[in-house]
Amino acid sequence: MDRSAEFRKWKAQCLSKADLSRKGSVDKDVVELVQFLNTRDQFFTTSSCAGRILLLDGGINGFEVQKQNCGWLLVTHKPCEKDDVIVALKKANGDATLKFEPFILHVQCQQLQDARILHSVAIDSGFRNSGITVGKRGKIMLAVRSTHGLEVPLSHKGKLMVTEEYIDFLLNVANQKMEENKKRIERFYNCLHHALERETMTNLHPKIKEKNNSSYTHKKQRNPEKAHAQCITKENDKELENDDDDLGINITIFPEGY
Amino acid sequence: MDRSAEFRKWKAQCLSKADLSRKGSVDKDVVELVQFLNTRDQFFTTSSCAGRILLLDGGINGFEVQKQNCGWLLVTHKPCEKDDVIVALKKANGDATLKFEPFILHVQCQQLQDARILHSVAIDSGFRNSGITVGKRGKIMLAVRSTHGLEVPLSHKGKLMVTEEYIDFLLNVANQKMEENKKRIERFYNCLHHALERETMTNLHPKIKEKNNSSYTHKKQRNPEKAHAQCITKENDKELENDDDDLGINITIFPEGY
Question: Locate the tRNA wybutosine-synthesizing protein domain: which residues (chains A, B) (predicted)?
């Protein structure tokens, strides 16, 4: 079977299966994006989460319950209020940790070039930890990941270690991150439209390829007002970016075009 | 210029440049790994951080100072003590955040297959957020990344929002993560040796390829005692793994071999 026939087979198998997540459905905020990707011949999505605030109860670092996949005291894809967390924390008997987990998406791609375009769009939209995986049998997967998380231990052996005032402050930070995360999903969706249109144009008219190559560079946007609908990394991302350059980790040199 | 000559040129350029990081040198805990990779024709490292505990001072989400690359109140690659953080926090006038950042490594690879081997080793060693990037000019980069972080806001507009007891508790968690991070770096180094030896053997004796293919699958280890020196993902990783399956995000199906 040739590669594209095999890919169509994988896609049909994948999309015909039931949603195995706890929630059992795709998150509202990414339904449009997931559906759009699945209408394209060269892509299909295998998993997604729009972003959520989680309160987990576990042993130290949440290990015991983690592996039993239980101990979820609270999970929400909407902004979270102090009282919900206070109530949920009463059920904690181990070390409870509050997490904000940003948008994550896994997309299987037909060709490496398809994954490259998607990866470039992800980076340009602010999802700095995105990357490609090439499986043993040649399956090409793009994971869209952000650095934009939060992980805060709140209780130890069931004892609350912080004040209600702190939880209130923490949820403000978490809710802001969720807002920023939503903007990035919109940016990703818009970028994706532009990049795929451009790719189609380029394939139809190879001569304009040179011009369109610029879409694979990660230009910084100096005008925040313009940034939202466009396919660029905002200069003023409101986050602690786990960025090798900005945070000055040991760098010999970072290759151009990377 | 053919691909391997071009790669040798990039490697020579990269390794001849000065270390541009604040620290200006490779972290002690990864020197051996970095040197080992750089002795191999098919790899060179472009940046690395062994893992660190950081205290950053910033506006909300650390934005303003972040982009000026300042406001580092504390940074250490060793286990951290409460008093160091208490002293450093006195200098905070914005929103100070304590972070544990795990090992990160960027490796440029000659061929996609080289990146695949390294990626498989990274995943098997517990670095779940690792991924490949293919640059505009065909540069192939592997980023080794963990999900094993911590990000905890501690003060708001210079006002400390938590108790000293909490900071003590938090540093215990951070120091444990640093310990686990070290074990993973060792595991990565051991895995890498085995995988590259196996690859060399396979190239010399193609007939044993079939057998060695198993090295690209992510077997779970049921015997923690055995786990350390071996190239497998420990069943009992002591962390809140940002794992799509375990944390049950929307999954249609996860392709085999991914």
Answer: 10-193
Total tally of structural domains belonging to chain A: 1
How many CB atoms neighbour CB B35 within 10 A? 11
- Residue pLDDT, tens place only, A175-234: 999 999 999 999 999 999 999 998 888 888 776 554 544 444 444 443 433 433 445 444
| Interface subset of A 40-59, CB within 8 angstroms of B | 45-49, 54, 56, 58
| Residue A204 Cα, gap to closest chain B Cα (Å) | 20
Which stretch of B45-49, B110-114, B229-233 has the lowest confidence by average pLDDT? Answer: B229-233
Domain of B160, CATH number, reads: 3.30.1960.10
Domain contains A227: no
Within a domain: A11: yes
Residue A150 in contact with partner chain B when CB distance is under 8 A:
yes
Cβ A222 vs Cβ B48: under 8 Å: no
CA of B134, closest CA in chain A: separation in Å?
6
Q: Closest to B25 (Cβ–Cβ): which among A135, A170, A250?
A: A250
Give pTM, 2 decimals.
0.80
- Answer whether B121's CB lies under 8 Å from B192's CB: yes
Of all residues in chain B, the percent with pLDDT exceeding 70 is 75
Across the interface, whether the CB atoms of A63 and B237 are under 8 A apart is answered yes
Q: Do A132 and B134 touch (CB under 8 A)?
A: yes
Residue A243 has pLDDT above 50, yes or no: no
pLDDT at B18 (0 to 100)? 81
Residue A168 has pLDDT above 50, yes or no: yes
| CA A144-A147-A150 angle, 5° bins | 125
Mean pLDDT of B32-55: 96
Residue located via tokens 């994948």: A14
Chain centroid to CA A106: 9
Q: Has residue B52 got a pLDDT over 60?
A: yes
Across chain A, where does the E strand assignment appear? Answer: 43-49, 52-58, 72-76, 95-101, 104-109, 131-134, 140-144, 150-153, 155-156, 159-160, 220-221, 233-234, 250-251
B217 belongs to a structural domain: no
Which residue is listed with tokens 């951070």?
A: B174
Closest A-chain CA to B48? A250
Phi, psi (5° rounding) for residue B185?
Answer: -60, -45
Is A60's pLDDT higher than 70? no
Domain that holds residue A194: 3-204
Is the CB of B153 inside 8 Å of chain A's CB atoms?
yes
Provide the greatest CA pair distance for chain A. Answer: 66
Which ipTM score applies to this complex? 0.79
Nearest by Cα to B105 from B157, B36, B41, B203: B36
Tell me the two tokens of residue A10: 């994988």
Cα–Cα nearest to A46, from B88, B255, B38: B255
pLDDT at B99: 96
